[in-house]
Amino acid sequence: GAGGGPLVVLCGERLKSRTGQHFIASVRASGLRALPTPDGRALARWAEAPRRVEAVGDLVLVSDWQVLAPTLAVLRRAREDLGLASRLLGIAVLCGRHEEEEARAAVAASAPHVSQGCPCAVLPSLAF
């Protein structure tokens, strides 16, 4: 399988910012694999790429709250239609301090598409 722990899939426009780039570098510096996907098309290209089933390993999703639903839809389609055998170990939802209520609503709306027991945290930050 894929060594090095879970693949951290990072989704959203915030990743293009200097703070987002520092965050990606920190994930990699911690020894984890990082897949920055600033938009849904990039994530879909990755999900649709041919690979050995065991090549990906487990996933941790870090997503802007605005793109949480389409991001989860891409991952679900990859599992159901393309045979991606990854488990989603957890979700971190990024938002600005003033967006926390909307982010929590996005998480609640996405709950039916997330496996039971998969932890999901909203992380408001002044940096975004």
Overview of this protein structure:
- This protein is α/β, with parallel strands linked by helices.
- Helix content is 37%, strand content 24%.
- It has four helices and five strands; from the N terminus they run βαβαβαβαβ.
- The protein has a five-stranded parallel β-sheet, sandwiched between helices.
- Helix 3 (68-82) links the parallel strand 3 (59-64) and strand 4.
- Helix 2 (40-48) packs parallel to helix 3 (68-82).
- The longest helix has 15 residues, at 68-82.
- The mean pLDDT is 87.
Tally of alpha and pi helices:
4
Quaternary organization: single chain
Q: What letter string, H or E per element, gives the SSE order?
A: EHEHEHEHE
The SS-based structural class is alpha/beta
What is the radius of gyration?
A: 14 Å
Query: How would a textbook summarize the main sheet?
Result: 5 strands, parallel
The tally of beta strands, per DSSP, is: 5
Share in helix: 25-40%
What distance separates the N and C termini?
Answer: 35 Å
| Approximate strand percentage | 15-25%
Structural shape: globular
Mean pLDDT over the residues: 87
The order of strands across the largest sheet is 2-1-3-4-5
Residue stretches low in confidence (pLDDT < 50, at least 5 long) are none
